Amino acid sequence: MLRIHDELRRGAFTNCTKLAAHLEVSRKTIVRDIAFMRDRLDLPIEFDSQLNAYRYTHPVSAFPTVQVTEGELLALLVARKALEQYRGTPFHRQLENSFDKLTAGLKDRITFSPAEELQSVSFKNVGLGRADLAAFNALSGATLRQFEVEFDYRKPGDKKAARRRVQPWHLSHRENLWYLVGFDTERDALRTFAVPRLTNVAVLKTHFTRPADFSPEKFFATALGVLGGDRDYRVVIRFSATAADHIREREWHESQALRELPDGKLELTLRLGALPEIERWVLGWGAEAEVLQPKELRDRLRATTGAMRAVYG
């Protein structure tokens, strides 16, 4: 069909017989393709009996490779508005360009303004992460080209930052924050770094090869959010009827299993590799959630709530 489009756009006097011979297909195939181009792609094709040839009735600038329904167009507009969470990163401009290319083929038939069309749709992400653009650019470039980096990194609670040398394997946007997954050469271990805590990033000339078997999906598989681990905890949490509806409405983890309990209560089971994140998450539900297993998590929560009582009196 692209070859037929090229013939018609340059004004060649062509018909099914000539096209079939030129493209080495049957005449029936040409008839079918022209019908599809005219009826499904809305291209202005007509047959001129006097010339015994097909022609475009008016100029066509580009072949309409993008075909979307009204619902798909709305989804594109929603996605366009959702790009704001990537503002301040190189991906924002790249995604904008991709969206413009996708919608370019629609402008002859559909005119729209995202600002006007999406007044009834909005996005609000609480606690969006702040990342230094220069640092992010350096990290993303080093990750793509597989060059080692050095940076100052301050762990939560530490007063001073430490210089780290890392092979950047993967950048991930999780829980409204950018994280770098990298192999720490001095500690000889894979580590996760929060990008906002990175300063003084330097891209080195040392090239590395990312392991072929590394998978970010597997790396984060045992994490509720970001922090995974090598343990295998079976976490069971009982929620009150008040909180149960909120739990049912979302997918919290790939391993989750729900069990309905009497009086509208709900039991959530997860398989996780570490406990700090799930501890903070359970605390957010207050008295609406009770950890049943494992005992180690119950003990941690008992100690934390005891400390909270001391804080609040």
Give unreliable regions as ranges.
none
> What is the chains' assembly state?
single chain
Described by strand count, sense and barrel closure, the largest sheet is:
5 strands, antiparallel
Q: What is the count of DSSP helices, taking H or I runs of 4+ residues?
A: 11
When the domains are counted, the total is 4
Overall 3D geometry?
A: elongated
Summarize the helix and strand pattern as letters. Answer: HHHEEHHHHEEEEEHEHEEHEH
CATH architecture classification of the largest domain: Roll
Order of strands across the main sheet: 6-5-4-3-7
Report mean pLDDT, rounded to a whole number.
84
Strand count: 11
CATH topology name of the largest domain = SH3 type barrels
Beta-strand share of residues: 15-25%
Broad CATH class of the largest domain: Mainly Beta
Estimated structural class: alpha+beta
For the terminal residues, how far apart are their CA atoms?
A: 77 Å
Helix content: 25-40%
Gyration radius, in Å = 29 Å
Task: Please tell me about this protein's structure.
This protein is an alpha+beta fold and 313 residues long. It has four domains: 55 residues, Arc Repressor Mutant, subunit A (Orthogonal Bundle); 48 residues; 87 residues, SH3 type barrels; 80 residues, Alpha-Beta Plaits. The chain is built from eleven helices and eleven strands. A five-stranded antiparallel sheet has the order 6-5-4-3-7. A four-stranded antiparallel sheet has the order 9-10-8-11. A two-stranded antiparallel sheet has the order 1-2. It is elongated and about 95 Å long. The model has no long low-confidence stretch (mean pLDDT 84).
